[in-house]
Amino acid sequence: MPEAYLIDAVRTPVGKRRGALASMHSADLAGHSLAALMRRTGVDPGAVDDVILGCCDTIGSQAGDVARTAWLVAGLPDHVPGVTIDRQCGSSQQAVHFAAQGVMSGTQDLVVAGGVQNMSAIPISAAMLVGQEYGFTTPFAESPGWTARYGDVEVSQFNSAEMIAEKWDISREDMESFALASHERARAATAEGRFAGEIEPVETADGLFEVDQCPRETSLEKMAGLDPLAPGGRITAGVASQICDGSAALLIASEQAVADHGLTPRARIHHLSVRGDDPVWMLTGPIPATKHALAQTGLSIDDIDLFECNEAFASVVLAWMKETGAPHARVNVNGGGIALGHPIGATGARLMTTMVNELERTGGRYALQTMCEGGGQANVTIIERL
Fold it and tell me: The organism sits in which domain of life (predicted)?
């Protein structure tokens, strides 16, 4: 089967809620990463076969196929198409999968993948709620077919995070220690300049924005004082990912494109898959998805040098580590969504951008990325450094 190569990856710094990127139109936000990717690779943008961007809540500034719009506002060629996809939190990781699959099928040679989300402008789940203004009911959990299959049960990420904490016996203190480590790792990585090479600064009205805004100076004492999101619960805002804004983009190429354009690949897509789990539990998908990916490749946890498991909630990653045996020392080593934010449509691409840079920095061979997604789904991507 033909190979798919990761040529380069770039992202914006992540802006906190109502922060540096809040007023930026989503098309321009994504366009910034797309233009930067083309400059950095030196590839003729006219040779790109397709642009695939992940984005959720595609209303307002994110409506109308933002992948196509973003490419155009970046000043790139009219004849290159674009498509926007939604696999919830895994949207831009799935964009990378579709790009790689296009290359591996032999039908495409150069595909741009990435994602964008301005959560300050378009609140999370806005698309699910907007229909109420026109007399439509709320989405899937009120579908007669859904109710007939799963019953009248609460379906929410917050409820799932609580259920996971209870089932895997993860205490609030366990989660707060994990969250603190995320912030400490992210702040250390920022101070050491680990993100500098992957970030394309953004010019804003307040000046040049070039450093992630979300990492905090916090403490176990501060987190212990937060109220739980549900009465008597263990989940607080301190152990959840942050609402934020950002974009990222990657160039995926075939072996022929590598030769034709004189490119130097940074990594090879070694494996890609996606699995589903119980949609009521929702956030447990990374567990069976990771086990499936390792079984398919013949690799073990010990063969993987770095892991990125998205920190939607601390309980999700802690349960995943318990089930897979992935050691915290190799998981989210530069911090995760709790500290760096989770711009949902862009997170998958942001994680992969950070992952390939860290794999190069540390000299590892394999890195595995996974994340929980709405509907109880999870993507897994394994890349091999070249």
Answer: Bacteria
